[in-house]
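Recall the central idea of this unit: under ordinary conditions, the amino acid sequence of a chain determines the structure it adopts. In this exercise we apply that idea directly, starting from the sequence alone.
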Amino acid sequence: QVQLVESGGGLVQAGGSLRLSCAASGRTFSILSVGWFRQAPGKEREFVVAINRLGGNTYYADSVKGRFTISRDNAKNTVYLQMNSLKPEDTAVYYCAADSTPIVSKTIATVNYWGQGTQVTVSS
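Accordingly, the structure predicted from this sequence is:
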């Protein structure tokens, strides 16, 4: 029903910035809660940030507060993740996810739609 495609990942030095994009097709973001999750090597997938369907409410993991900013452009069916002051511990595959139910109210295993992920590597 929903296809999500992430882009914008890459290799950056610590302290640098990247902007990830999540483009949706099949169903617009305007009616979906959207979030970003990440999975580092040897670790479980973890919640990073989520935004509600209108963009008025955002929720950040403590590890990224003050450094990452999520935004959405419903006209373009796209959600962005601006990542500043990147740290080596931010290195992970970043996944875009969406659901008709607020993601912050769900467990990771129950989130319905997922992208393929984009690699973010932060060197020291």
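The radius of gyration is 13 Å.
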